[in-house]
Structures are given as structure tokens and as C-alpha cells.
């Protein structure tokens, strides 16, 4: 009798789960394209990383190519050019984090203080617009403004008696131009997350602060900013995950042999190695360098997450 009752309970539970799945079938259908994209374009290609440990030959394939173990990684790390690539990548990543990470936060804080709804919407739309412009167009705009012959910047310099500067061909200007362009291109989009978090703050806190005589600056620093601390830490961890990743499209469009000493980064080096214009592409070496970069990025994410877990309540896992 007890066994039959248990079987009935299990059967009823299964019926309930099946009914819940059936009632939400349309939601799962909406989820299906995203899952397929994840499996086909994100997870399945991971099996191809085995070529990083091979002397891969396109004619022999993965099964026919010889196994070399960590040889490709050793060649990359022992290469004298490795330190140049690492230095350029780290400097671009640090500058991008130092200047690019706080700008959306500051912009969201000040935009929240704008009283006119029309001005606020117009400013937000204007700041968001560059995100929809392709990297090729933004770099073309930079070239137009900085052209040594017809560029607006050099015309202004010429007007005050300074010789025209070919900014795009001087190695010393590459990092400043890249970081500035990257910040302008993405700060409006990044501020949306913080504006959404600000919208969720309890307005009674501001009312109580006004009763106590708090100024707008005090409300910003003692209410708005602390309320954003969790999302700021979370976004910082996500930024650390892409610390060694630069916008390859912008780098390839902006750099040339005259600026290699500051512009050549790990990703552009991988691109040149994996898709060499002369001779046979070295896919194994390119895959090994890319895997090395991914492993370092993963270690940075884990470290940042542990630090945030120790000193705050925000963490990813």
C-alpha cells in the first residue's frame, strides 16, 4: 500500500513538471535559437583548440597532424618579441580600464541630475549613437579629423603656428587615439546599466536626505553612488575578464608598420600568424597564442572575483 502511494506521488510530480513545461513551451522555443548559437559557434569550436598542441597541417587535418605538446607555447614565450606584445597589450588594457571604466559611471551620475526630461533623453540618445557606428566608420572619422593636409586638428595647429602632425603614423600617439576612440565609442552604451540601477533606487531615500538638508552633491555621493556599488563591482569583474582583449577591428584599421612598436598587440600578432599573407598560415601557433591569452584572462577573472568576494558582497560565482 505504501509503495503504491509513493508511485502515485512520483507520477503526480512528473505530471506537474510536464504540465509546467508544456505551459511554458513558447518560452523554451524562444530560448532555442540562442542555445543553438551557443553550441554551434561558441562551444563546438572549442574542440578545435587541440591544434594548439599540434603541428597542424590543413591537408592532413587534426587526426593526421603530428603532436608537439607545449612547443608552440614555448616558442611564443621565448620569442624576444613576446615582451613587446605583452607590454603593448597591458598598457592598452590598463589605459582603457583606467579611463574607459569610470566614464560611464560618471556620465550616468551627472545625467541622473538633469531635471529636464527632454534634455536627458536627447543627451542619452546622442551618447548612445556612436555605439551603432562601425569601427571602420569611426576610424575613418578620426583619419579625416587628423589628416595632415586637410584635417581640422592640423588646420587649427597651423593657425597658431605649429607644424602639422601626422598623428596616425606616429607611434607615440597610437595609445591616446585608441583609448579616446574606444571611450567615445562605448561610454553611452555602458552607462545604460548604471542608469537602470539608478532608476531602481528607492526615492524615499532622496526625500529623507532633502528633509535633512542634503545638497545634490551629497545625495549623489552618499545615496546614488553607494547604491551602485554592487553593479560597479560586477561590471569591474567583467571588464577584468576582457583585460587582455583589445578591439582588434580598431587596431587593425589604425595601425601600420610605422606604429608597430606601440600598436602591435597579442591579438594582432595572432591575426598575422594565423592568416599570414606570405607562405602558409601558422594556425597552430596562432591557436596557442590565443589560448594563452584566454587562460590568463580566466585567471584574472577568478582572482578579481575572489578579491571582490573578500571585500564586498558582489561576486560572479
TrEMBL record:
Source domain of life: Bacteria
GO cellular component terms, A-Z: plasma membrane
Membrane-protein topology: Multi-pass membrane protein
Keywords: Cell membrane, Membrane, Transmembrane, Transmembrane helix, Transport
Residue spans crossing the bilayer: 26-53, 90-114, 126-146, 183-201, 221-244, 283-302
Subcellular location: Cell membrane
Main location: membrane
Matching CDD domains: TM_PBP2
PROSITE patterns for the chain: ABC_TM1
Domain ABC transmembrane type-1: residue ranges: 86-304
Gene Ontology biological process: transmembrane transport
PANTHER family xrefs: BLL4140 PROTEIN (PTHR43227:SF11)
Sequence similarity: Belongs to the binding-protein-dependent transport system permease family.
Protein name stated in the entry: ABC transporter permease subunit
Amino acid at each position: 500500500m505504501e509503495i503504491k502511494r509513493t508511485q502515485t506521488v512520483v507520477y503526480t510530480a512528473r505530471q506537474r513538471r510536464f504540465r509546467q513545461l508544456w505551459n511554458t513551451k513558447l518560452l523554451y522555443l524562444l530560448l532555442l535559437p540562442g542555445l543553438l548559437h551557443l553550441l554551434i559557434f561558441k562551444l563546438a569550436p572549442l574542440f578545435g583548440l587541440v591544434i594548439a598542441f599540434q603541428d597542424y597541417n590543413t591537408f592532413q587535418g587534426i587526426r593526421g597532424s603530428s603532436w608537439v605538446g607545449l612547443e608552440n607555447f614555448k616558442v611564443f614565450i621565448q620569442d624576444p618579441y613576446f615582451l613587446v606584445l605583452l607590454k603593448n597589450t597591458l598598457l592598452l588594457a590598463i589605459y582603457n580600464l583606467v579611463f574607459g571604466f569610470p566614464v560611464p559611471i560618471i556620465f550616468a551620475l551627472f545625467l541622473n541630475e538633469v531635471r529636464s526630461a527632454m534634455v536627458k533623453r536627447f543627451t542619452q540618445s546622442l551618447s548612445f549613437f556612436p555605439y551603432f557606428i562601425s569601427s571602420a566608420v569611426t576610424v575613418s572619422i578620426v583619419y579625416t579629423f587628423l589628416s595632415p593636409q586637410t584635417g581640422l586638428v592640423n588646420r587649427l595647429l597651423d593657425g597658431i603656428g605649429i607644424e602639422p602632425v601626422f598623428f596616425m603614423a606616429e607611434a607615440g600617439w597610437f595609445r591616446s587615439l585608441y583609448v579616446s576612440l574606444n571611450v567615445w565609442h562605448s561610454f553611452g552604451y555602458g552607462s545604460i546599466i548604471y542608469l537602470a540601477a539608478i532608476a531602481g533606487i528607492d526615492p524615499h531615500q532622496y526625500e529623507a536626505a532633502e528633509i535633512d538638508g542634503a545638497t545634490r552633491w551629497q545625495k549623489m555621493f552618499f545615496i546614488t553612488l553607494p547604491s551602485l556599488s554592487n553593479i560597479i563591482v560586477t561590471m569591474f569583474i567583467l571588464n577584468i575578464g576582457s583585460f587582455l582583449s583589445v578591439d582588434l577591428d580598431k587596431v587593425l584599421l589604425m595601425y601600420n608598420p610605422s606604429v608597430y612598436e606601440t600598436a602591435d598587440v597579442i591579438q594582432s600578432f595572432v591575426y598575422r600568424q594565423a592568416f599570414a599573407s606570405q607562405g602558409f598560415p601558422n594556425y597552430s601557433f596562432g591557436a596557442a597564442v590565443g589560448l594563452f591569452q584566454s587562460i590568463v584572462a580566466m585567471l584574472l577573472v577568478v582572482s578579481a572575483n575572489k578579491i571582490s568576494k573578500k571585500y564586498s558582497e558582489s561576486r560572479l560565482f
